[in-house]
Amino acid sequence: MKIIQITAAYKPAYIYGGPTMSVAKLCESLGSWKDEETGSSDVRKCDRWIEKLTLKVFTTTANGKNELEVEPNQTKIVDGVEVSYFSRITKDHTHFSPALLYNLFKVLRQAQHDKIGIIIHIHAWWNLVSVLSCAVAFWHKIPVVLSPRGMLTTYTQTNRNSLAKNLIHKIIGKRLLNYCHIHATSEKEKYDILTLVNPKSIVVIPNLVQLNDHHVTNKEQQSINNENTAIPFKIIFLSRIEEKKGLELLFDALSILNFDFILTIAGSGNKDYIQSLKTRATHLKLADKISWLGQVKNDDKFNLLSKNDIMVLTSYNENFANVVIESLSVGTAVILSNQVGLANYVTENNLGWITKLDVHSVADKLNLSYQDNQKRNKIRKLAASLIFKDFNDKILAQKYIKLYTDILNG
């Protein structure tokens, strides 16, 4: 079985945040999976595919407005994964790469000639890498798994370049999407997808998330808010800074709180948009309560998350949200909007608070989290073990392998 993972951006393009990291983690786990001895019986029945499992990544040199410092149109090994980086002609958010499409065409034609079981797994939608790669696979009658990663919702269709998206969807997109086997990362994303398209099949498998086995030390525990109200309540937002994250809503809610707090904002985004947020914070008299850290290294974010009382994500749309798992893995409770894919998981396991997309609802949940020190301490003690169990790399990798083999077996 040959799996070609196609993504417009791959690490070290960390500027794109969680989706890029999840794709890389999936590829690394699949690359090492066949060497493990823990395969489920359902998967082991398909050994005829797995014995010759090969994995390749086709991506571009995309790194925001710039390009990665890699040799274009070449292949290199990145953390055990064979990755081919192809130059692109257009920048964000189209990523048009003729070299990638030409090489994909050659690989598919050769696979057909050799009668090799092959699957194309495409990550994200609404860019020319994804849409045209899907068209190439459709032309060759090669099965496609599509992970939209939040790109197939009514919100994303109307939020940016909506006219172009609707035009592409009507001309070619809908037909291609109906050809795909779709992978959703949460039940919410599955629901959103099925309101727009009718795929061949759809399955829910959570993201693989890079976790750091971080244990909170006594010294760190002392820095975490307790019943001593002289210590400011420590709130953190850690994500890519863009309109859909609901930071304006969060700022408005913070402006009506009656307790002392510090908000740390970690992440990068459009400079003009970030400046507009800073202006809003000044008007709301929040400027001296907000610390802007910019992009944080992956190795540092777990320590940063562990030093805060609560992680807040009031997004208008979020198919999964890796940062939720990252925060809980170090014991920091979360406040999420009800439009975040992991909201149900947090509710079912009592790992935080869920808010509506309303200023007073967000403020109310911030007040509850501040007051309920007992619940926050319980989450700090118990969340990590639950996260490492529920989001185990090997178990999740088996689910992806089963998805691929089920498709090849018809």
TrEMBL record:
Concerning InterPro entries, the annotation shows:
Glyco_trans_1, Glyco_trans_4-like_N
The answer to keyword Methyltransferase applying to this record is no
Q: Where is the Glycosyl transferase family domain?
A: 232-382
Instruction: Give the top-rank taxon of the lineage listed in the UniProt record for this protein.
Output: Bacteria
List residues of the Glycosyltransferase subfamily 4-like N-terminal domain.
56-211
- The portions of this protein that span the membrane are none
Indicate whether RNA-binding appears among the record's keywords. Answer: no
Record's keyword terms, sorted: Transferase
Q: One GO MF term, please? A: glycosyltransferase activity
Q: This protein is called what?
A: Glycosyltransferase
